[in-house]
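User: Can you predict the 3D structure for this chain?
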Amino acid sequence: MAGEISDRSAGIRLSPTTSLFVGMALEGYAESLDQREAGELPFIVTAIDPDGGSEVIAAAKNLHVATAAFTASVVARPKSRIVLRHGARVISENRAQEATSVTKAME
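Assistant: Here is the predicted structure, written as structure tokens:
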């Protein structure tokens, strides 16, 4: 499913509302991924809770889809640190203790 969304969304800009719904769908899909499958996709969105536990929220083949999942995760989990990675490289990060907006986190 994520691969199909990724292929279809290449070069498409998503509205904030659409991004939220895509992110919610990917979050549900990520729950069914095992860590091996998530590790095979290049873009990973992870939530790090205040107690230090982490959870893969979404994994995607396409940056636009991963960004939508990141944006939705920041809104849905305001007390968690949300990180969007491409491999080991951090693309975007939202720290829960900082009062940063989604826009600033994505700049």
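The first strand starts at residue 43 and ends at 48. The chain has five helices and four strands.
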